[in-house]
Structures are given as C-alpha cells and as structure tokens.
Amino acid sequence: MSDEKLKEFLALCQMAEVCQICPDLADKKAVLSELNGNLNPKVFFIAEAPGRQGADRTRRPFYGDKSGENFQKFLDSIGLKREEIFITNAVLCSPRKENGANRSPKKSEIKNCSSFLQKTIQLLEPTVVATLGSVALEALKAIEYHQISLKNDIGNAFDWNGRKLVPLYHPSPQVIASHRRFDEQMQDFQTLKKLI
After folding, report:
1. What values do phi and psi take at 83, rounded to 5?
2. Has residue 1 got a pLDDT over 70?
3. pLDDT value at position 179?
4. Would you give the distance in Å from CA 39 to the centre of its chain?
5. Contacting residues for 59 by C-beta, under 8 A, at least 6 apart
6. What domain range is 190 assigned to?
7. CATH code for the domain in which residue 120 is found
8. Looking at the 3D structure of the chain, how many domains does it have?
C-alpha cells in the first residue's frame, strides 16, 4: 500500500474514532486501526460488531474471546495467517444491552456505519470479501445491492462490486451450537482457500 493510501486509511480511522452519530454507541470507541490487519489483504473479512470480551477490549477483531479462537481455527484449516487478512465490522463500536451484554446492532447503526465500511473497501481494494454472519452480509447491500442469502448461498463465491464475495456463518459459539456446526464451517472456509 502506498504512503498516500496509508495516510487515507489512518485519516479514516481517526474519523471513526471521533464519530458519535449513534446515540447508544456515542460512549464507545470504534475498532478500526492498523490492528485490524493487512492493508493489502488476501481476504477482507466483515463481521457484525466488536464483542465486549473480544475486539472492544483488545482493539483487535476476533481476539480475546471464544469467537476469536474459533475464527483462528478456521483460518488455520486453510493455511491463512492473520498477517495476510483484514477484519472489520458492519458496526465499528460495540453495541450493548443495558446489563452490559453484547447485542445485535440496530439497522440505524449499520446504516450510520456503512460509509466507513464502503470507504475501507474502496481503499484496501480487496479481491475477496468474506462476510461472517447475516448482519455483515446484509450491511453490504447498502454499498452494492445483492440478493445473496446466508441460508441459501453459504460457502459459495459470488461476483459482487467487482470482487468475489463469500458468505460465511459467524464463528461464535452460539452459531456453532445452533446453526452451523464447527466441521460444516470448516468446510465452508475451503471456498476461500480456492480463491486465494
């Protein structure tokens, strides 16, 4: 990545850091920095939002919690290193319930954050984008509309916005327990291996 692009990326990170558009997230700090990964990524991953125990605490997506451990196992299964990827979220701040537990982002929060996602994709110009969960897949519709669904299209590669898009399930323990088993998700990641 050129010095100019790095400067643009760091400026975008600064904008995200001071953003206070979402009333419920105004006291949170956006997780977007060079800790998100390689700025010339082999795969550009998009998840839902920073987790309370993970990225919101460590400032690195998928670090410090069970979802992060699972994600690492999936990466290892296809020989992809953290240093080769970039990870961001549909919403850059950690949405919480009143009791402090993680909650899903609101539609308004996803919409408010979509310009950051769009600018990050434009800057990094990834050839392969992988969404982790339905929130991330849905968030991409604001950038370029698609009719891809997690239920029907899991683990397949599609043309989207001049690149390949692979919808994957989120690596959270809840998803693995209720929707998509660990070995099934491991199999889904094989699509990425073929693309990189």
Report:
1. -65, -10
2. no
3. 85
4. 14
5. 31, 33, 35
6. 3-195
7. 3.40.470.10
8. 1
